[in-house]
Queue: 4 jobs
Job 1
Amino acid sequence: MGFRVAIVGATGLVGGEFLRVLEQRHFPVDSLRLYASDRSAGRRLPFAGEEIEVAETDESSFEGVDIALFSAGADISRRFSPIAARAGAVVIDNSAAFRMDPQVPLVVPEVNPEDIRSHQGIIANPNCSTIQMVVALNPLHRVSPIKRIVVSTYQAVSGTGSNAMDELRQQTALLMDGKEEQIAPKVYPHQIAFNALPFVEGFLENDYTTEEWKMLQETRKIMHEPNVPICATCVRVPVYISHGEAVNVELSRPMSAQEARDILSKAPGVKVLDDPRANLYPLPIWAAGTDDVFVGRIRRDVSHPNGLVMWVVADNLRKGAALNAVQIAEVMVKEKLLSTSRRR
Ligand SMILES: NC(=O)c1ccc[n+]([C@@H]2O[C@H](COP(=O)([O-])OP(=O)(O)OC[C@H]3O[C@@H](n4cnc5c(N)ncnc54)[C@H](OP(=O)(O)O)[C@@H]3O)[C@@H](O)[C@H]2O)c1
């Protein structure tokens, strides 16, 4: 039996990845409805050998939908997710709208799949930088509980959406043509091409950014560790796809790099690429378009006896967004949590 699926934000970067991931993983789709804003109504997008017309999202979009995948920003999620849930759909939401709501599970299937069971119609997909970090850290945490995390991110422009990718492309072309004076940043406050911006999203009263604070709060919620100390610095870099993260983790006991490699080699969703002398370590260009969280440069942190350092890279549009959401839906299918009782 297949499911009636709707994608809200189907024309966006994450929306396009939803279409590819559903098709590539042979998700049991009975029917697929595509929604976006009025700007895209009437556009046709390919799926499984057909072309599906995009419609404007409205209150009636969710009648007869089993699973609604949202990736159109937090305002749209706040407005339409409760409507979709009331209409009987299970919403899997990619925005930040409900992530810290205590009634809403925040799920990474490799880490806390059991939380899906407590949903009340809406399940939140975590922030992209958080997902890849917890997939890499949770297997170590199970062996030796984590005492502290310090992370610095190197985040791709696709994390800001398609406009940011266009901006990087245009600025790079202007710089290569020697037309630097024509650069007029719109998406970011400064030039992103050949640069690094030491913030992601907006600043909070405490001088951290919203992205840094999401990494702290969401990691604690997903790992069920409400007090674990975490400090993040999030940086935007001129990479199209895939976020990199330098992660320092303090465990409960000393762990050798080899033990960490052995644990991570067996961990679900993780691929260890760690032979630096052969120039083998995770690269954003290799991770782009793939499903795994890549981990390399694993070594002892010489500043702390129980410390480890590693470099973690994953495709922010796939594992950081669309893939993780579809994996949540797959768990629900496998565990029969999308029961026929939700179907009208
Ligand atoms: N990019 C990432 O790495 C990433 C990772 C995790 C989560 N997310 C989240 O996913 C969401 C989308 O990100 P994205 O990168 O795909 O952005 P994007 O490429 O800019 O796409 C935005 C999508 O939202 C739709 N939309 C905008 N206004 C709308 C409205 N009023 N009603 C219905 N749909 C509307 C757009 O439709 P039109 O084409 O009609 O404008 C488009 O389909 C955001 O919440 C983002 O935080 C993104």
Note: The helical segments are 13-24, 74-86, 128-143, 162-176, 210-223, 257-265, 284-287, 318-334.
Job 2
Amino acid sequence: MIDLYTWPTPNGFKVSIMLEECGLDYTVFPVDIGRGDQFDPDFLKISPNNKMPAIVDHGGPGGQPYPLFESGAILLYLAEKTGRFMARETAARYLVIQWLMFQMGGVGPMFGQAHHFRQYAPEPIDYAVQRYTKETGRLYGVMDRRLGECEFLAGDYSIADMACFPWTRSYERQGQDLDDFPNVRRWFDAIDARPAVQRGLAVLADRRRDPSEIDDKQRSILFGAEQYKRR
Ligand SMILES: N[C@@H](CCC(=O)N[C@@H](CS)C(=O)NCC(=O)O)C(=O)O
């Protein structure tokens, strides 16, 4: 049994999708990041960077409970544990890892900043909006070219697709139009049609809030004094 500490965000959905794709048993523990659950001392023992998602695998290595944070590490761990969604042979395996790292180092941070400056910044900062919107568009272009060469990012459907897909669901809020990226649209529709993906996206979906609903307390927890308090 795996404990999944999550909240309905793109990073959280990566892991719930993988758990569903693998048919693993898991229990969901909501981490309401607008309420500050991520700073709970017990959660920080599992995820010292105060971010969800995190897991505890009660059937970890040596049969011991194994805690893990960082969504990319969790996806790699689950792929190794199950032998699914990542090739074993070196060249194909590193193709998956390469596109997973592309997501972790590029897509997540840049799409996230585009989202932040377009939806959450208390006042509009044109330089930041332009920079992150354009960089996000450039990354969509990289994906589009790649997906013009093969069906999925690493050839076969893999954890790299599961990592990128949830971030592309909010393309409009990132200032993008999928008509400009037809290969991404084809890929998006194929992944979105997978029943396991829909089950993964349903995890805590009813708790999802619109950015316009964020209040001052939540803003302080996520982006202000509460976030930067030394712990
Ligand atoms: N690199 C991390 C990023 C995780 C992350 O940014 N999680 C956000 C929500 S999507 C979070 O927990 N934010 C709460 C906070 O920063 O206090 C991963 O991929 O797991």
Note: The chain has two domains: 2-84+199-228, 90-193.
Job 3
Amino acid sequence: MTGAISKTHWHSWCTGALPEGCAQCVQGRKLVLFITGLCPQRCFYCPVSEHKFGHDVVYANEWKIKNPDNPVELFEEARLTEATGAGITGGDPLARVDRCVDYIKRLKEKFGKRFHIHLYTPLKLVTKEKLQKLYAAGLDEIRFHPDLDDELLWPRLTLSRGFNWRIGVEIPAIPGYEEKTRKLISFIAGKVDFFNLNELERSDTKAAHFKLDAMHFVQKGDISYGIRGSSEMALEMITYAKNKGLRAHFCTAKLKDAVQMTNRLRRRSKRAALPFDERTSEGLLVRGCVYLEELAPGVGYREKLKSADRAMLRKLLDKAKSKIKAMVKADIVVDESKPRLLLSPKILKENAKAVKNLGLVPAIVEEYPTVDAFEVEIDFL
Ligand code: SF4
């Protein structure tokens, strides 16, 4: 306990029960639905990457949805991660409100009414009509992201009252913004159900990175992206919120990395793993991989993947698979997304020399169980 606030089991702090959206998120059961990169706001700390911000793209977790009118990947990702809910984010989801409405309806139809959906939005595009549409579609929780530097639009969040959903306000804890944050807390107390603060983090996007540097914000350590001073400020602010009678939760960078993400990876790896894959306690996959010489991981690998002639590679992989099968009794899967062959790490280690003699490149790879299969470690045999 720190005064009036208590530490949760998930490296966060709160002054009451967690909002339902957060309770599912910490278990890794909330699918992150990035509904569009369009956003009329320009927050200086915006964490949205350059390849998403300003682009009308849709992602279900890391999975880019090819055709937003038919989001088949969304349902598959929800199934693979055993999601019991989704958090709709962006960009500003209200820039594509009809898409939000459509997806909320589809998710509720597919997974049932209890599939919990929350949505984040700044205030620029909020109207009663849009809120009415979202509510009618079945949205359970709405979280506003007001601009601390411009209070003109703050009263708009009261338009969400009168609907039977939970209303929250969520902002980053910005050191130096104590007075503005207190002002916001005083404004929302009695009007919303909860107040969430996120630890301010260093962003990988160039614009936000430079702005945070220019404002003399410093990363608090090598491991965490959290900004020095943000946690201390957040704890002070949630105590202030509590004294105003407002339920508050402070979500740390560690919660997102060590708890929410790990829990989601563990769930996904259970479902995404092939029978011969090994799984680490963090939910990563350890796989036996065989690459074609011209497309083995190394310098320029990602670029080569983009320009590869998939049909030709498929033929070469099928041929390589037959040759290995002639030598080794093992299940071998052609992975077209990378492209490569996958087989048991143990069997591959035992037969590495023979595989190399075929002009192929064997490796043991530890990677994320996500759709991009991001490699953490590649050990060439
Ligand atoms: S509202 Fe969200 S997406 Fe838009 S600029 Fe701010 S942080 Fe980025």
Note: The pocket of iron/sulfur cluster is lined by residues 39, 41-43, 46, 48, 90-92, 122, 145 (CB under 6 Å).
Job 4
Amino acid sequence: MRKVNVGLIGFGTVGSGVAEALKAKRGYIKSRYNLDINLIKICDKDIISKRKVKVDSSLLTKNAYDIIDNPAVDIVIELIGGIEKAKEFILAALKKKKHVVTANKALLSIAKDELFQVAEKNGVQLHFEASVCSGIPIIKALREGLAANRIQSIYGIVNGTCNYILSEMDEKAIDFATALKQAQEKGYAESDPSLDIKGHDSAHKLAILASLCFGIDVKPKDIYTEGITDISSADIKYASGFGYAVKLLAIAKKMERELEVRVHPTLVPRNYPLASVSSNFNGVLIESDIVGETFFYGQGSGAKPTASAVISDIIDISNDIVNKKLEKFPIIVYDKQVDKIKPKKDFYCSYYIRFSAIDKPGVLASISKILADHSISIASVSQKVRSKQKVVPIIMLTHKAKELSVAEALEKIDALDAIRRKSVVIRSERSRI
Ligand SMILES: NC(=O)c1ccc[n+]([C@@H]2O[C@H](COP(=O)([O-])OP(=O)(O)OC[C@H]3O[C@@H](n4cnc5c(N)ncnc54)[C@H](OP(=O)(O)O)[C@@H]3O)[C@@H](O)[C@H]2O)c1
């Protein structure tokens, strides 16, 4: 039996989950893979507080270099999160020719190039399954299961916090602030939830997925990112009336030689698989050329689901160590399929628009004319409330149109006398998903 020694840096939520699962599954991994995964050192700033899992105190250290510089360690698991220190530790471990497993999407999304180059130069592997949708083995599916395909598009619900909030707003007709408070009470949202609710966490994950699939290095700054903070329960209700759920989608799609990458609230038809992903679950729909659509669903966060992904990476690397076939493990695995990232003005999708207009004859005609002048055609219209000379919502769904045309049309419509508030716009992906 081959013994593989691992050292863990970061003994927080995920780190404790990994230590617990490694302890519980050690016998199972031995019998199934003939591998003895041996956790020999754990580092954290705090080695006093009790954790969910009991470990021998001799394993604990406050100094990450007790792991990185330890010749007995084969694999370093980085689970401290953040950027500077995590990058320092990962680079140091790779340069010491140790394989690394990380769940750090924030770091990978901005520094993947550098990290993978250093891994390759040192002949070691850097695995990152837990960084996207933790419990869903999406990286493995893209690298291996879909290897013969060319990926055309990715539509993902990749942030459990946002999905929980939007699902609760939908199911219980509550407002954003109430749903966020509820998410925090249940442990689905951080005390500072901004990274999640402003869409940045989804952009980090999309940067990793899109780089993997389309052969170019996508960074979070390349991704148009809009969070869910402005979504109202009224819009969720109106969208529902048209047969749509509102989801925060991370979208990457190839349009000829250009890549559209965007994260924003999106109307999704209720009868599509992504609409049925509720609570804090994640779901990713991939369109590729041979298999067509594949859909992945599961827990995208939490100690156990994330530990499941981290341990899968440890087993993969361990098997490679044993079989002496440590091949290059790059972040970009598909051939270069696009030359550039499409600017926002050229996005091409359908739109939900809510106008706040005075209810008087001719308003609808004025709005429709401006839309038509900008080549935007209307798919459905609804005016739920009628109240003469009062402000009422007029809701329209458009057919596919160019983002710039919609922006220019709305500027003109919002300047009309009859329009009393800035119009609300939510993109829709109804015809491709
Ligand atoms: N939680 C999830 O569900 C989940 C899912 C997928 C991916 N991830 C990723 O997994 C990583 C860890 O997340 P987590 O939720 O487990 O975070 P966490 O609970 O905050 O745990 C991180 C631990 O590392 C410690 N730490 C920070 N800097 C350190 C340093 N320089 N040296 C030693 N220890 C240090 C922290 O101590 P202090 O608290 O004292 O700073 C904390 O105990 C992150 O990259 C995250 O994005 C998390």
Note: DSSP finds 13 helices and 18 strands in the chain.
